[in-house]
Amino acid sequence: MDGSKALDILRTIAPEFKAVSDEQVQKFLELCVPLVSKSRFGKLYDQALALLAAHRMKLSGLGVSVIGGSSGEGGAAAGFQLASVAEASVNVSFNTANINTGTDSWYALTPYGLEFLNLRRLLIMPITSAGER
Q1: Which residues face 85 on adjacent strands?
Q2: Is 38 domain-assigned?
Q3: Is residue 37 situated within a structural domain?
Q4: Which residues contact 28 (CB under 8 A, 6 or more apart)?
Q5: Domain extent for 19
Q6: Mean pLDDT throughout 30-38?
Q7: For the chain, how many structural domains are there in total?
Q8: How far is CA 42 from CA 5, 39, 48, 100, in A?
């Protein structure tokens, strides 16, 4: 896989990963290749590949964290949204409502995953029963 086009797209859509080396980004792109269909995404294949790689990078704790504001912090928690904060006993909770391994909710943990889903929905028609149109 050449991946230079997907790498360029990732660098454009996800500037938060500017401190991540091209070599490391390329590894994430390569991990995503089997998960993105060239035939289904067509001309938008590289964009889909870049979005999925950025999603996985974010969940791996790379990029700017929501929690600490710096690179490399947060892990999977970087995709969670802050649900509540308390001051007295210092309680912090995160919205984990989107975590459901049986659905596409895993993609909803990052903006890149949501963009990937939107792109997929635009291009890939779901199978419907004969009665639906």
Answers
A1: 92
A2: yes
A3: yes
A4: 53, 56, 57, 60
A5: 4-123
A6: 95
A7: 1
A8: 14, 5, 10, 29
pTM of the predicted model as reported, rounded to 2 decimal places: 0.70
Q: List, for residues 88-121, the tens digit of each pLDDT value.
A: 666 666 555 555 555 788 898 899 999 999 999 8
45 or 123: whose pLDDT is higher? 45
Beta bridge partners of 82: 94
Token pair, residue 87, equals: 């001051």
In a domain, 76, yes or no: yes
| DSSP helix/strand/coil, 121 | helix
